[in-house]
Structures are given as C-alpha cells and as structure tokens.
Amino acid sequence: MATRRSFMIGATLAAPALLRKAVAAEGLGLDPHLPAGTLSEAALEALPGKVPLIKLSYRPPNYETPLRYFNDLFTPNDAFFVRYHLSDIPEVDPNTWGLTIGGDAAAKPFELTLDALKRDFAPIEIAALCQCAGNRRGLFDPHVPGVEWGYGAMGNARWKGVRLKDILERANLAKETIEISFQGTDGPAFDKTPHFVKSIPIWKALDPDTLVAYEMNGQALPHFNGAPARIVVPGWAGTYWMKHVTRITARSTPEDNFWMKAAYRIPTGKFPLVQRFLSQETVASTPITEMVVNSVITAPAAGDAVRMGSTLTVKGVAWDGGYGITSVEVSTDEGQSWARATLGPDVGRYSFRPWTFQVRATSKGPLTLMARASNAIGQTQTSALIQNPAGYHHNLMHRVSVTVA
Amino acid sequence: MRKPLLAALALAVSTAAHADETVITLKNAPGRDVVMNNCAACHSLDYIQMNSPFPDQKVWEAEVTKMIKAFGAPIDDADAKTIIDYLSRNYGTGGPT
Hints:
heterodimer, A: 405 residues, Sulfite Oxidase, Chain A, domain 2, Immunoglobulin-like, five-stranded mixed sheet, five-stranded antiparallel sheet, 13% helix, 33% strand, B: 97 residues, mainly alpha, Cytochrome Bc1 Complex, Chain D, domain 2, 42% helix, globular, disordered N terminus, metal-binding (chain A), Molybdopterin-dependent oxidoreductase (chain A), Mopterin_OxRdtase_euk (chain A)
C-alpha cells in the first residue's frame, strides 16, 4: 500500500518538471526518470555496421538498444548494444588474430589461431543474455554517476564457440589456480590508464557453459561486439564477457587491478545472490556475479493509445542468472493484484524467456501495466530499489502506462 | 609499453571517432577551455552532460579525483580545481548538498 502511495505522490510532484524533457526524448522512447542531462544529450546514431541505437557517449562508444528490439527473442546483431570503457578500439584482422593462454599457473602455455580454435575443440552453441552490470543505472533514485543506461544495455543471442575448460585443459593448470583472467585488444587513450583486464574464479572458468565465442546468431561477431572472439559467461554480468580477447591467464593469485579491486563491486551480502567470487571478496564489497531476476515490458510502448473495449496483448521478456524463470505476473492496478502471464518457449536457462498477457481495456483513461518475474530458486523482482554506489542490479518492476480512449 | 600486443596481432587504423562528437557544446562559462583541454583527451564530453545535473560538488570532485588517481589523467592541481568548479556550477547542484 505504501508503495502505491509513494509512487503516486512521486509522479505528481515530478510531472511538471519532467514534461519538457519527456517531449524532447519522445522519439527515442527514453524513460523520463533518466537524468535530465541524459535526456537532452542522448540521440539515435548509427555506428558502422549497426542500425541507429541510443547513443549515450561517442568516445568510448556506449550505445543502447531501443526496447522494441526485445520483442524478438534474439536481439539482431546490428541492433545489439555497444559498451566500451576505453577509447582505443582497433579493428582486429581475424587472419592474424591470436589467443595466448599462459600465466604462472599454466604449466603448458600455448597460442591459438582462429582456425585452430575452431578446428581443435568441439563447437557448442548456447542461448544467453549479455547484460551490462549497470543496465538501468540511469533509473536509480537518487542518481549515481556512470554511463546512464536506460533499459537497453543488454541483448540475447545464440553464442557459438568452444568451452573455455577445453582450452584450459590443454594448458595443464596447476592445482593452485584460483582465477582465470582475460584481456582484449581495446586499450586506453593514455598510457597510465589501467588496461581493461577481468578475472573469474576457476570454478566458473571450468563451467561447461563458459565459452570463447566466435559467432553470435549464426554470424561472425560484429566488430563492436568483440570480433573475432570474446568470452561468454552465461548468467553473469557482461563485465566478464571480454571482447576481442587475446590473452587468457591462469593465476595462482587474485588479479589485482582497478577493474577488479575498485570497479564492478557490490556491497557484500546486500543482494540475494548465490554465486560468490571469494578470492576477490572483502568484508565491505564483492565482485558482481550472476544477474538478478528481472523482466521488461516490450509492448505496448509507454504512451501508446489503446482503443476502449479492445483486448490488449502485453509482451515482454524475463531472465535471471541461470536458475530458470518460473513465472511472470502482470498487474493492472498498481500492484494490488497480480495475474500470471503465459510463458513462451524455453530455449535455455540463460536466455530471455518471452511472455505474453492479455488484458481488456474496460475503462477510459490511463492504464498502467506492471510486470514481475520469479525464478526457480524463489527469487522475485524487488518493489524497492536496492541502493548501491555504482548503480548495479536494478531490478525494480517495470511499469508502462498507456491511454485508453 | 603502450599496448602489450601479440606478435601475431595485426592492427588496422584505430576507429576511435565514428560519429561526430564535435557537435557537443559545453556551457560557455569560466573554466570551459580547461575542461575541454583536459577531459576530451580521453573521452567525449557528452559524459559530462549525461551525468548532469544531479552531482553535487563532492560527487564531481570524486569523479575528477578518480580520473587522476585511478585512470592516470595528467591534470595538475590548479586545473583540477577549475574543472571541479566548472562542473559543479554548470553541470551540478552548485555546491555540497
């Protein structure tokens, strides 16, 4: 009850101030709760090889996917979001690309060409959502600094590649191996900026679903999504899915750099997560791991007009960290009552799970739809945002308002 | 070493600037040139607009400090102060809240 009331009070107070920006941002379908500066600078722009996406920053390029593309189970490669930390992004020639496997815990270091990667190891294809840890950061209240993403810093794809564990097996890892780290070719504009290097715990690296992928949705990886090969860590935040990967390092000590020790961390114990990265955990904070249970409404779009008496088909997708979506519920009365949506095909536990819900438009005026997903280990989306300094794991229930006339 | 690269790795020209970031115009106020000269060396200036106007002076100070300490930006103390003042006044709440 308190939730509903504060929602309504908040909406009333915020409306006049937001009106002008909301109109300006209308064409992009941006959520009016994003920072005012984001609403005025975001623009539809096309990178080479991409359809127009929502540009948040030019350099390094950070572009999100408009929500309507998630009406499809798999996100088209040319509409797939783009996220970089550092601005020197070389085009890599797949014919001369090489992957080095080494590190102090690798007894037999070696190198692979792209041909050898494809030839020497069994191929495997997995449907999985790649979602930026900071997706929806821009909707935090109060706002926190960072790339102010709306809903579209994510994409669902079929990733084809080889198992990381098969590659690591050949390197004859020491028993003391605790982490596997990854580095790609993209680098900083300035020498002293730390290279983007990320590690995962050895148990996650040996998970048969963790891949070195060279195709998405049946095609070679696009440049801006990590060509010619990237790491795929199904269920985990995109920060570990190293693009343009050229170096895999087996470590007997924890990776020690800015991107592990300071960035991509959440307050220890604050989120209901199962998978822990203990070699990087402190009393205060811990690396982000699996994604929290979440969903979005992809149709209708906010502000759509609906004919009085018609039956509206509400569509969306749900996901979690790989435990499996068990239900999606929809509310049309600000969360007072909920009814089950119909789940679409299950193409794998790391994939988007599509859902639909039918509602009759029986009274004129605004109609607000809310969706909440639950998973196989009893987790449900939150009704109160879980605050954290970097704005990760936003899984507040999505609301979309339409007008019945 | 600027970029530790594999011998086998061939690089084409960098593709840093695709779209035209020159369209970005920061507010004309004292300190703008210092901001543009320092910040744009590593990132486009839309990062500033995007992260506004919610930060108070402490938040902008923390951001500028992060650029210097964590990312190694070569910004001297006087410029850092000018940048923090400019951002707080033009892209923030104006002062500590």
